[in-house]
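Hi team,

Filling in the usual template for the complex we talked about on Friday. All components are listed, including any nucleic acid strands or ligand strings, so the model treats them as one assembly.

SUBMITTER: L.P.
PURPOSE: interface mapping
COMPONENTS: four
RESIDUES: 670
SEQUENCES:
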Amino acid sequence: MDDRKLAVLRAIVTDYVRSREPVGSRALVERHRLDVSPATIRNDMAALEDEGYIAQPHTSAGRVPTDKGYRLFVDRLAQIKPLSRAERCAISAFLAGAVDLDDIVTRTVRLLAKVTSQVAIVQYPVVVSAVIRQVDLIRLNGSRGLVVLVNSAGAVRQHHVDLGDCRDEDLSALRQRLNQAVVGLTPGQAAARLGGLVEQVEPDARGLAANLAAGLADLLVADSSTRVVVGGVGNLARFTDQFETAIKPVLEALEEQVVLLRLLGEATSEVTVRIGQENEHVNLTAASVVASRYGDSDETWASLGVVGPTSMDYPSTMASVRAVARYVSQILAEG
Amino acid sequence: MDDRKLAVLRAIVTDYVRSREPVGSRALVERHRLDVSPATIRNDMAALEDEGYIAQPHTSAGRVPTDKGYRLFVDRLAQIKPLSRAERCAISAFLAGAVDLDDIVTRTVRLLAKVTSQVAIVQYPVVVSAVIRQVDLIRLNGSRGLVVLVNSAGAVRQHHVDLGDCRDEDLSALRQRLNQAVVGLTPGQAAARLGGLVEQVEPDARGLAANLAAGLADLLVADSSTRVVVGGVGNLARFTDQFETAIKPVLEALEEQVVLLRLLGEATSEVTVRIGQENEHVNLTAASVVASRYGDSDETWASLGVVGPTSMDYPSTMASVRAVARYVSQILAEG
DNA sequence: GACTGGCACTCGACCAGTGTGAGTGCCAGG
DNA sequence: CCTGGCACTCACACTGGTCGAGTGCCAGTC
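RESULT (copied from the run log):
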């Protein structure tokens, strides 16, 4: 691929992202120092159009980048724009005040939405290597009971169970037994050991044990799935004009936790970009997702990212996402 | 106020809500059986306009209800439209499948958004009369520890604390002491008793005790504040045309937990309606909020509601909000 | 006194016709 | 291979004209 043609594509993407209007050959040579005439550029543009990198909304209009064009831009033409010192300080300061995990996640969403001016999505971190620290059985009222699971990362999960008419002694015996069996194990190991455990219980308490084990099993599974927090939805407001295509479907997609999880799930440690049609979800084929994994490598990790129009400023957005991911990782590692 | 004038106002509101277009005198007499001529209606309309109940977008256009007009409509003219049997069944069935509190709230939001076709807001229920069932102190890694609080309603809250270099025996002794002191108390009572407790501890463990007590105190306070869940934001998509005035500000307001809590906070047991300007928050002066308290009277309660355009169908919306509130209350009382 | 029919008036919505200009593709010449 | 020139296209803005829904007012009627 010709060097100048690449330069032209880069120029088109840059200008279009700035103005959101089709860009023509003359404006191109004027705004960028291409040192050739508009006619030459036109030939290049025709070629780029043939190859599918740009398109014309209608004859006799300027060109607009296609998804394929953005892809090439992101892969080969864009340099991630480093953030200014002031921006980095602001990010760091904003996150530093967090008191617990909830707070970290909340702050991260707000921060990400603010620095990118887009819709931010943050997944709660999963501590892969976390082991079970404690299992509790608590009677609430009558036969209503609660199984509480605490892991070494400090995550607490609970599940309601029916205790039947068991006595308190049975309950505390079972509690002790459960703890002996699963404390120190990962959720996966614990789930495997639960089955055998019920067998060992005296026959008359077996019903209760099975019940509790089922509740605990639910918790162990739930532990690996995670919650997702969304923020900055108001930022969609900037694209009033393309409401039907750009806003409505995105709003709908944002309601689906599952969709969001899948969106973020594919992010690798470096910043990942999915452009328009590359997104599997139909509602997001007019949007782009910039995501990154965060956390301290093996211990704790999850993904975060932003959703915006395909015509977003990729270099800046990617830089911001990467920076936020790094700073959150740092905070997590410290605290 | 003249009977017929009220009828005219009711007719205007009804028609405008249906069509979202200014309604004129002729259409009015045709669609509603007013049994007078358009000219007569025009006189009434002029009077209603003088009194501030309706307005003209421009000369020679039909009339549109003002906030004041909607208020009168809601207070004196509207009858809450009872839901059909099928609708009631659907609501009941949808909620019945819930497994725990989280699930109830999630389902309620979805349900409310769906039946009203508007943005739904549900506050997590606060169990006023809940007492503390158990306090746990758990060591995570090194000096990182966790205080876990479980109340009789099955709510679980946790808080990270620094354990310093205390021994496991000290920890379990303290745990026992704390439990003896606060189990069975309401958060308020417990908070009051915590102060004295630290005094009684042997001097060398007092630092740790104070630390833990502080963590627990945080939890006790947090217990009374609550979370809010929002859903059905995609329903805003119907009002594409009035984006700037009707959607953007609402999206922004929905991001603020505090605003939402205050919005719902004022709801009484019956359905409450706040129309346009009546909302304190600037961003919501073009929207209406229909809210209701739910829960089983004294035990457990919170608020839920919807946010929509001032030109919403009040009778239906109020009916739906009321119905959902009642069914959720029922589910909460049962489980 | 309340209602009605008639009338003049207003003003946004819609439509067709027109000009403008940004932008293109193509071609012949340097 | 690049360039200047030229013919062509087409969205968009502007114009003026018509239409019709809607109003306010007034004189007349029950």
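MY TAKE: The domain at 132-222 of chain A is CATH 3.30.390.10 (Enolase-like; domain 1). Chain A touches chain B at residues 100, 133-134, 136, 138-141, 144, 146, 148, 150, 152-154, 156, 158-160, 231-234, 236-237, 240, 243-244, 247-248, 251-252, 254-255 (CB under 8 Å).

Thanks, L.
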